């Protein structure tokens, strides 16, 4: 029998930095899927006070006791009355009575968009209230659960390394019928660094392959005076690309929509290249394949900036989210 508490046993497994990184990555991906399922049930009836022993709740949600301990560890800061997680055993009675606003903010703080974007929230808060809570948390800069997010980023950074290695190794694919250039934020009408690098890569490819057409994909978001597609179009035309070779997709607001809407415009029976930054190209290409495009190739552009420290962990979480949502 272990001398460790069940919480210590969970953390020894979940935060073991000596473990094989690929194995630990799979562990977290599986856990996030389980966590999402439990939250879907809780948020479907948010006013129900769920109580029971740790073992009883594990049985209720069809999980192992240690997995339930992990969930209790994660939600504890969002409960109206925290559970005694440091000392509990499987027979300790616990509660999942959560503060709705605090839970939503903590999900935002953890950058867990696959949780704070769950459709069950629509019946709890209005879109206006959710936006208000989101902005409050972002402005506060409060780190609610540092250990989980910090260690998770270290673990998943190994997958990020693999993404960049894959991008470097990708060979050229000339004479494609189309390239799809994925949008990124525009400041007013100015291309940000990430989008500029993507657009420069598209320019290079189109100059080298004069028969290729480009779908420029990206709608208009906050702080943008024009659509991302139009901003890319302006740059390419200014640098000598014939406007007739450019197709604008101006409704998408996410990578998944970029691919779905763009492929919807040109069809699936073409050779297609996905142009985006090296850290983003794996997901973009995988989503395109999931959409049904069989002849699809990555065309990575470089991205060199300290912001990679932000973008790579975010991209790994986005990959996990898209896998959970069935987008890739």
Tally of helical runs: 13
Termini, distance in Å?
42 Å
Shape annotation? elongated
What is the N-to-C succession of helices and strands? HHEHHEHHHHEEEHEHEHEHEH
* Cα gyration radius (Å): 22 Å
Helix/strand structural class:
alpha/beta
Write the layout of secondary structure elements.
Elements: H1 6-14, H2 21-44, E1 51-53, H3 54-60, H4 65-75, E2 93-95, H5 100-109, H6 113-116, H7 127-140, H8 146-169, E3 178-182, E4 186-187, E5 190-191, H9 193-208, E6 213-217, H10 228-238, E7 246-249, H11 255-266, E8 272-277, H12 281-290, E9 296-301, H13 308-324
What does this structure look like?
With 328 residues, this protein is an alpha/beta fold. Helices cover 52% and strands 11% of the residues. The chain is built from 13 helices and nine strands. β4 and β5 (190-191) form a beta hairpin. It is elongated, with a radius of gyration of 22 Å. Residues 142-147, 150-163 and 165-171 have low confidence and may be disordered.
Short overview:
The chain has 328 residues and is of the alpha/beta class. The protein has helices at 6-14, 21-44, 54-60, 65-75, 100-109, 113-116, 127-140, 146-169, 193-208, 228-238, 255-266, 281-290, 308-324, and strands spanning 51-53, 93-95, 178-182, 186-187, 190-191, 213-217, 246-249, 272-277, 296-301. The radius of gyration is 22 Å and the shape is elongated.
């Amino acid at each position: 029998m272990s001398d460790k508490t069940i919480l210590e046993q969970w953390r020894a497994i979940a935060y073991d930095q000596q473990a094989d990184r690929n194995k630990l990555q799979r562990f977290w991906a599986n856990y996030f899927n389980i966590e999402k399922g439990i939250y879907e049930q809780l948020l479907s009836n948010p006013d129900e006070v769920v109580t029971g022993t740790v073992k009883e709740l594990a049985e209720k949600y069809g999980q192992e006791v240690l997995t339930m301990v992990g969930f209790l560890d994660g939600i504890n800061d969002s409960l109206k009355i925290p559970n005694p997680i440091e000392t509990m055993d499987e027979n300790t009675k616990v509660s999942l009575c959560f503060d709705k606003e605090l839970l939503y903010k903590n999900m935002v703080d953890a950058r867990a968009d696959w949780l704070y974007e769950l459709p069950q929230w629509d019946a709890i808060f209005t879109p206006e209230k959710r936006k208000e809570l989101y902005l409050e948390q972002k402005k506060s800069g409060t780190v609610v659960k540092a250990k989980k997010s910090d260690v998770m980023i270290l673990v998943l950074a190994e997958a990020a390394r693999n993404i960049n290695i894959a991008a470097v190794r990708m060979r050229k694919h000339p004479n494609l019928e189309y390239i799809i250039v994925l949008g990124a934020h525009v400041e007013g009408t100015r291309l940000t660094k990430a989008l500029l690098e993507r657009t420069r890569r598209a320019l290079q490819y189109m100059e080298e392959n004069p028969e290729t057409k480009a779908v420029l994909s990206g709608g208009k978001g906050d702080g943008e005076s024009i659509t991302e597609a139009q901003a890319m179009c302006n740059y390419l035309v200014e640098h000598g690309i014939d406007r007739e070779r450019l197709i604008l997709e101006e409704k998408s607001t996410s990578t998944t929509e970029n691919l779905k809407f763009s492929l919807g415009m040109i069809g699936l029976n073409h050779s297609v290249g996905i142009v985006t930054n090296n850290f983003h190209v794996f997901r973009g290409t995988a989503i395109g394949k999931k959409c049904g495009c069989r002849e699809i190739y990555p065309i990575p552009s470089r991205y060199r900036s300290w912001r990679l420290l932000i973008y790579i962990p975010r991209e790994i979480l986005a990959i996990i989210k898209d896998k959970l949502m069935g987008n890739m």
